Amino acid sequence: MEAMKETVEESLREMRETFASGRTRSLKWRKAQIGAIYEMVKDNEDKICNALFQDLGKHSTEAFRDELGVVLRTATVAINCLDKWAVPKHSKLPLLFYPAKGKVISEPYGTVLVLSSWNFPISLSLDPLIGAIAAGNTVLLKSSELSPNASAFLAKTIPAYLDTKAIKVIEGGPDVATILLQHQWDKIFFTGSPKIGRIIMAAAAQHLTPVTLELGGKCPTIVDHLTISKNIKSVVKRIAGGKWGSCNGQACISVDYVLIEKSFAPTLIDMLKPTIKSFFGEIPKESGCLSRIANKQHVRRLSRLLSDPRVQASIVYGGSIDEDKLYVEPTILLDPPLDSEIMNEEIFGPILPIITVRDIQESIGIINTKPKPLAIYAFTNDENLKTRILSETSSGSVTFNDVMIQYMCDALPFGGVGESGIGRYHGKYSFDCFSHEKAIMEGSLGMDLEARYPPWNNFKLTFIRLAFREAYFKLILLMLGLKR
Amino acid sequence: MAAKKMFGAANASILVTDLRRSFDDGVTRGYEWRVTQLKKLLIICDNHEPEIVAALRDDLGKPELESSVYEVSLLRNSIKLALKQLKNWMAPEKAKTSLTTFPASAEIVSEPLGVVLVISAWNYPFLLSIDPVIGAISAGNAVVLKPSELAPASSALLAKLMEQYLDSSAVRVVEGAVTETTALLEQKWDKIFYTGSSKIGRVIMAAAAKHLTPVVLELGGKSPVVVDSDTDLKVTVRRIIAGKWGCNNGQACVSPDYILTTKEYAPKVIDAMKKELETFYGKNPMESKDMSRIVNSTHFDRLSKLLDEKEVSDKIVYGGEKDRENLKIAPTILLDVPLDSLIMSEEIFGPLLPILTLNNLEESFDVIRSRPKPLAAYLFTHNKKLKERFATTVSAGGIVVNDIAVHLALHTLPFGGVGESGMGAYHGKFSFDAFSHKKAVLYRSLFGDSAVRYPPYSRGKLRLLKALVDSNIFDIFKVLLGLS
């Protein structure tokens, strides 16, 4: 640990020195670095897919769709848009201040820390990294020890492509994180659980370090069967794809549970079953298209969620567990009790509770009994319901008639609220996330108003009062002596 | 007179529960409610200015002009702006969608965070209490305001007026000190907005971390003023004096804290300052009614200590008189105090102005950079290149060239700190945004589904995904048409 402490201190020293040198301020440098990340991913597609397969049993298509493709796009957008993003924004000033000028420039925070997660270890490391670099910071990335192959890839390959005095990678677990958090950073970006989010923010508070916390929650999916019955096939496919098709339910925006009217639940279940089979075949464990559970600890956690007898009784599909193979079968539950553990913590796995309601409008009440999630999904064509969902629930985002895909929409901020997080990123929001918006006002030494200065008197008071109200005409009258 | 009720944990809990109920009932969401509350705040400013001025005179000895202009007028403008712009601010913002999420439409909806806490400061007790409350109400939140106990007359008046005029089911004032603040901080808030010292800022953020509550911290620092010899000296000096002693007698977060100028120019600066100080405050500044007094004996003793330190007391070149009974310290200028003296190590927040001389102005960048980032940094010069360099390389909350503090009045510029001087920003629309959650909303169609999204995965699907990511137009058409 002593060695690690020294490594961290030395890294910080070097990154701060690099930042102070001004090298990272150049847009050319930033684009070159981001371009290098692009090349790194393109050059090493097979290696990366292999690492993800080793760590999570992720299929290469899924790996590309959810990680490599995302990073390539993020890098392309950043390079193409950086000039635009970095332009100062001019502000209009009131006439009274003429000829003063105002603008806001985005400046890098300095030396930032990115703490990434294990479920999308490549994209959740490189996306924030690209944002930090685009904004002109020096960055230290700590990848997750729970995805060791991906972490090792990043630790070994990033130094080969990027400016090592400005961008560094450290591998390790909670003990390394603890050492890192003792130091002062200019910004911390964390992806992970709310529990650890609190620890990160408390540590950041000691140094007044601003944080972005991308956390999680139980993302509900409302299925308003009445109004989407014509497209029910698409709906079922999207839900199934959103649950099991992306890291097997281990994503912060995974479909956590479904809400549907009681009479339609059997239809939904009857359609989900063959859909799962069409995705993963008769034996999902052997399909090669279903990601594994992260580790035995998580398998046991999921097993525990299922062990509640009332939850056991609600299993209508699946339920088998193979701890050695890190496998939990795609499982569907029908109406597990709302007070069971599985309905009160983020599942983060391939178990899908279906909660029935008498009237779909009741879903809103149920959603509001839980902490604000990262995403709410709703399949409906009822405009009224859409409006109610938007105004009566709160979440990081709301997606109508699809799941997960809001992640791809660069023009939308990606982040949580309440328990699901603080701050946001993606697209320009990533650039903003790692920038301090500095206000700059430039006054003129030429025009000086006596009224600004003591000693005070009634004239000056009246003058200033009028000036503030921008009552320019009365101001002129005052100055001409025509107003008392 | 009835004994003051103790406000403890139980009271805080009930308070938050009450306000949360009001918020959940939708009391604060509507446009009408927000407008009504804002109009009531305007009535407070219009009908109670004399009482406000009197309270500020009691608490701080603040001259009428300062109270009227820097507290009431600024507030009036802030409220009027909110009333004028609220519909615009509340409207959803359209966002661009890309080919990967086609067909879809996206928007960003501003929603209130919920129940928020505003903790204000003693130096501008009305401005710093009501301005954030304007933001909170505009954004549709329920709000608790805790004014500073160090300005008791203002605190009592705020409590009285806000109870009299505003909707107490959603807007409350809690008066008190450490006990009350601690009780409040134990509760779960949806946002905390704090104005005050960096030391307490850490305490606030640590408390907020327990509940993952986002914070805005408006703190302080040593705001430097760089004076170039290529400037209009008279105007420069007058603006510095008005910005320092004319704004609560140096007790402001953006007060010019110390001056940096060349050895050659310093004598001219000092002479000019002495001359203008006498013009503003007369030969006996201790008797001038145009300056606030020191707020209390604790701060008086703190400032005394700064002046009395060995190696500092002999550097006084103007002023230095103290009157503890009347809590007055004369405008005092010091020349070349040691860099490691107390007066150069903490935010002065009083009527003392050290001038540090350098061999050349270049050195000022290093001096500033070697210290924590301040809330504001000032430069007086005609030199365009110097202005450019200063604006881009000095990191501070905000930069003002050729003036002092005026940027506070500009609602088109975000006002906030960075590093030790704080996080987050407000004023104008930035206040509305500070108290809002920007919810991302994606509307997707149930048509236009491509098999490429779903398992079982194949090389073919991988190819198509890559095409989508690369935005190769021909390949995309193939994908959308379900070909290939």
Automatic annotation (TrEMBL), chain A:
Protein name stated in the entry: Aldehyde dehydrogenase
Molecular function GO terms recorded: aldehyde dehydrogenase (NAD+) activity
Matches recorded under Pfam families: Aldedh
GO CC annotation, single: cytoplasm
Sorted UniProt keywords: NAD, Oxidoreductase
Family of this protein: Belongs to the aldehyde dehydrogenase family.
Alphabetical list of InterPro entries matching this protein: Aldehyde_DH_dom, Aldehyde_DH_NAD(P)
Catalytic activity: an aldehyde + NAD(+) + H2O = a carboxylate + NADH + 2 H(+)
UniProtKB/TrEMBL annotation, chain B:
InterPro entries: Ald_DH_CS_GLU (IPR029510), Aldehyde_DH_dom (IPR015590), Aldehyde_DH_NAD(P) (IPR012394)
Family: Belongs to the aldehyde dehydrogenase family.
The entry's keywords: NAD, Oxidoreductase
Domain of life, per lineage: Eukaryota
Listed GO biological process terms: aldehyde metabolic process; response to abscisic acid; response to water deprivation
UniProt keyword Oxidoreductase, yes or no: yes
Cellular component terms (Gene Ontology): cytoplasm
Catalytic activity: an aldehyde + NAD(+) + H2O = a carboxylate + NADH + 2 H(+)
Leader sequence residues: none
Official protein name in the record: Aldehyde dehydrogenase
Boundaries of every Aldehyde dehydrogenase domain copy: 34-441
UniProt xrefs under Pfam families: Aldedh (PF00171)
GO molecular function annotations of the record: aldehyde dehydrogenase (NAD+) activity
